[in-house]
Amino acid sequence: MKKLICTFGLFVGLVSSAAFASSGGGLPFHADVDLTDKASLQRGAKLFMNYCSGCHQMQYQRYERTFNDLGIPLDAGLENLIFTKNTKVGAHIKNAMPEKSAAKWFGATPPDLTLESRLRGADWIYSYLKSFYVDPSRPFGVNNTVFKDVGMPHVLQELQGVPHKEEHFEEQLIDGELQRVSLGERIVVDGSGELSEDEYDRAALDITNFMVYVGEPMILERQSLGWKALLYCFIFFVLAVLLKKEFWKDVK
């Protein structure tokens, strides 16, 4: 029984470690994703459709599934979240941009983002949205510390403001003397955006939350069933061990 419990605990630990590793390390920001927060998911859907869907598709996700899962009324969804003509609510989330034209304008066709959260992780998406900065050498005038030489404009700049990358210094006492020490570069926003810094952080998190949901719409149900399955296996193993002992008691 003791060995059984240890084995089960090791298995759960390995599963948890794998989940932690997949979240992505070494990124500047952590996304505190909450897929039970319907208000955040609705805001994220609105922001994505208004600022991202003009170039990026989610061709493996349907509008109707999104509206139903996020509690968005059909009329509100049709009016505020579908921008392509003659698109039915049961259609996949696509845009009207021709792929050849997109490749010509951006240098490459903008990727489909349905599975982006599963490919890169929530922390990556959140950090990416917060890491644009002005770079006159780039075609669209911006670069990104998470995705070097990014080939797209900062579409959320009107919300965030104009971000600049600056080196951050701090005075530290070294060998009895105050010295100016570099703490590395950080992004500073000029305050011209429609949102405050905290509001923009929330907007970036809302988009991230929405993209994580789209990456696996059944994730909450899957996780719930997963723990139930583990509990069932544990109970079954305990009963199997007890039954084995009962059978072998007579043999011995």
Automatic annotation (TrEMBL):
It is found in: Membrane. Its main location: membrane. It comes from the Bacteria. Heme c binds at C52, C55, H56. Residues 1-21 form the signal peptide. Its cofactor is heme c. Keywords: Heme, Iron, Membrane, Metal-binding, Signal, Transmembrane, Transmembrane helix. Residues 39-211 form the Cytochrome c domain. SUPFAM superfamilies: Cytochrome c (SSF46626). Gene3D superfamilies: Cytochrome c-like domain. PANTHER family: CYTOCHROME C1, CYTOCHROME C1, HEME PROTEIN, MITOCHONDRIAL. One of its GO terms (cellular component) is membrane. Binds 1 heme c group covalently per subunit. InterPro entries: Cyt_c-like_dom, Cyt_c-like_dom_sf, Cyt_c1. The chain crosses the membrane at residues 225-243. It holds the Pfam family Cytochrom_C1. This is Cytochrome c1. The keyword Ribonucleoprotein does not apply. One of its GO terms (molecular function) is electron transfer activity.
